[in-house]
Amino acid sequence: MSQENVEVVRAANEAFLSGDVERALAALDPEIEWHATVGGIDEGRVYNGREEVVQGFADYFEVWERMEMRADEYIDAGGENVVVYHHEVAKGRESGVVVETDTGTVQTVRDGRIVRVRSYMDRAQALEAAGLSE
Question: Exposed, middle or buried: residue 60 (CB in 10 Å: 0-12, 13-18, 19+)?
Fold first, then answer.
């Protein structure tokens, strides 16, 4: 089942990154729990359900003029969890400052849908949250 979970997460990420928002959202459970990035500007915020996740991304893009993201690695963390390493480059809308980060997410998959996403500025924290270590 774990490799199937990796494929669910990979397909959702690829859909999002290619701009196919509808397909990306279809991979999310309707009651998804999406935790904002630990160490990020909205740390502590939890988005519940697809509509809040969409609004969270809309709010995020109000802050950033340009955002580029790629998934560098997918790690089968066993059970329901998949760790994804991302590389992000963003340019502040007002400041013009370019920020480049390497982040990690732990995505939990049940019954073929992503039910929870936890994001971390520190990739080691993502591994630890998934019960793994470097």
Answer: middle
E-strand spans in the chain? Answer: 28-38, 46-48, 64-76, 81-92, 98-110, 113-120
Phi, psi (5° rounding) for residue 47? -100, 125
Q: Whole-structure pTM over 0.85, yes or no?
A: yes
Side by side, the strands of the sheet bearing 98-110 are 46-48, 28-38, 113-120, 98-110, 81-92, 64-76
* 21 contacts 103 by C-beta, under 8 angstroms: no
> Residue 134 pLDDT more than 80?
no
Going by C-beta distance under 8 Å and a sequence separation of 6 or more, which residues neighbour residue 104? 83, 84, 85, 86, 119, 120, 122, 123, 124, 125, 126, 127
Can you tell me the distance from the alpha carbon of 86 to that of 107, in angstroms, rounded to the nearest whole number? 13
**Interatomic CA distance for residues 64 and 108, integer angstroms:** 27
- pLDDT tens digit string along 4-59? 999 999 999 999 888 898 999 999 999 999 998 898 878 889 999 999 998 887 88
What residue ranges define each of the domains in the chain, with the CATH number in brackets?
2-129 (3.10.450.50)
